[in-house]
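User: My advisor asked me to double-check a structure prediction for tRNA 4-demethylwyosine synthase (AdoMet-dependent) before group meeting. I don't want to rely on an old file, so could you generate it fresh from this sequence?
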Amino acid sequence: MPPSVWTLDGAWTCTEAWLLAAWQNRLYVYSAAAVLIGLWFTVNMALKKKKLDVPESHRLDKPEKKKEQLPEKEKAVHVVGVRIFYGSQTGTAKGFARELAQDVCAAGFQSEVIDMSDYDPDDRLSDECTSKMICVFLVATYTDGKPTENAEWFCKWLEEASTDFRYGKTYLKGMRYAAFGLGNSEYVGHYNTVGKNVDKWLWALSASRVMGRGEGDCNVVKSRNGSVQADFQAWKTKFMSRLQALARGEKKTCSGKCKKGSCKNKKKHQQGTEEGHPSPEKHSSEELFESSSDSESAAEEEKEHGSVIDMEDLGSVMSVIKKAKVRSFEEHRGKLSKLNGVMKTDVEEERREMITPALREALTKQGYKLIGSHSGVKLCRWTKSMLRGRGGCYKHTFYGIESHRCMETTPSLACANKCVFCWRHHTNPVGTEWRWKMDPAEKILKEAVENHQNMIRQFRGVPGVRPERFEEGLSVKHCALSLVGEPIMYPEINSFLRLLHQRHISSFLVTNAQFPEEIRSLVPVTQLYVSVDASTKDSLKRIDRPLFKDFWQRFLDSLGALGEKVSAHLASLRSIFHGVTYCGESSASSLTMANVPWHEEVVHFVQQLADMLPDYEIACEHEHSNCLLLAHHKFKVDGEWWTWIDYERFQELIQQYEESGGTMTFSALDYVAKTPGWAVFGARERGFDPSDTRFQRKNKTKDISGC
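Assistant: Sure, here is a fresh prediction for tRNA 4-demethylwyosine synthase (AdoMet-dependent) from the sequence you gave:
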């Protein structure tokens, strides 16, 4: 047998013998293993006990020693700076963010302004828990209480995280924040919804408030400080004071310098907890920035954070909540307006001016001549054009209005809609009823005419201005109440219209179909128009963004009221179709030149509509304004259109109407005039008056002052 084979056989025989012996004596093997494990465990326990018995003074670990060696200045740093997040649609919140950042830097802190659309909260927000930065959220509420476009994702993530068990209740524990919301209290049910939600969601994730939530109100009537800008200034002042206190290491809302342990702000301390977790209840009557709904959410938020209230304290807690609710009720007690359901206080406060200083500055820069506290006048670009003999607007083509003698004004800069196509870019205030100081109609008309004439006088000697038209322009013959806002909101609108007619000035009034009762109560006007911006409830809501909750019913009722006027011979039914006109870029709207239809597209649309209305036909067009007139066949006499107006005849008829106390009524057919051939649809002039000269400017700057 080879040696290698013998060696393997011998090894196997020895191994087999050893294993057999171990198996036969396995009881002893198990016992030995158990003894060894027991000894190991005993020794470890003894060592651990010895370590715990070391005196407290001898147990400084290395990190603590290092901490002792840190400079005193570094240990005292409590706040490094402020990160300012903004959610903005029109640019107001963005402007506030930049303004706050400048003040923070001036105070010696770091600042960073962040567009919410550029920030990924899933990756970065938890870092704020240890960053020693204060996070400020300036968020506006957009349509239907939804976030602005740039804040949609951030808010969606925050909402989901606040209820997602995978993040947990303490996901943002250690993060310090403050919130300021921008909204309009006229939007009942949606006021500052986004600001409230962001505050609520951050709180649910255990982030700490450094101060109460602020709310800016674009409704100057209800704004605590008169405007959203003033609301922000008041909140910002309080925030900067709180920032300085936090930087000093103070955790309470007062300075901590009260003598003999007696806090002058004791009431606030009793209702607030340590740094940034103040009780959601109202701290005092001086706390102007907290949400009115906070007082009702104290118990809910206590439950949300898992804290327990002793039974003996339950009575006092409930008493505080009850008192807060009673106080809130007393503050807001009032009665509902029959007109629009908006709350009115029993003791009405002194009415504020509609035009705030900031709004006055903005409108003045846009060329408005402001009148009193709520009216304005502006020179239309078509007025300038016709003074030079370069053509008039569609009103001249359709009705014979001389553009150079037309005054564009409004007795109310406020509106009940915030239309996406608004050519004033939402610089005017909004409201659902008149709640401002009111100027008399005589003052408005007098100053409107004076301001208009002064603007016309500025064209004296300007090259190209026709002398005869300059002289005519100083004498106002027409008034277009379509400048901006909702003129029918002005409570003295009928007095204003009568004053116009007494001065032999025709009236062209446009309303946004949200005030049906006011339409019914109107005295006769030369021309009354109701804007129809959409054909369905959903599209009207998206396009006009109305303030009224019952906007659709108001829209239908307004059309019904117009029909009643027609039946009573107090108005005529003619329809104008415009293609949207591009008026420059605006953060308030996403519309661009791509949304402007070609004139031929508008013609095609109106022709299709006319085919479905057997009693109507396209009467006129004004190509330059992308506009057509659809008129009833009653205005077509012997095959010729009579859409122009005999303004002298109208003044005679309205005078008879007033003198007879309204018994001598008349209809539109009583003061019509023949439409010239160049203005009729299908004419080669396409609505341009041949007595003028067409002027086309290359690379012209945008002019948004036309109608």
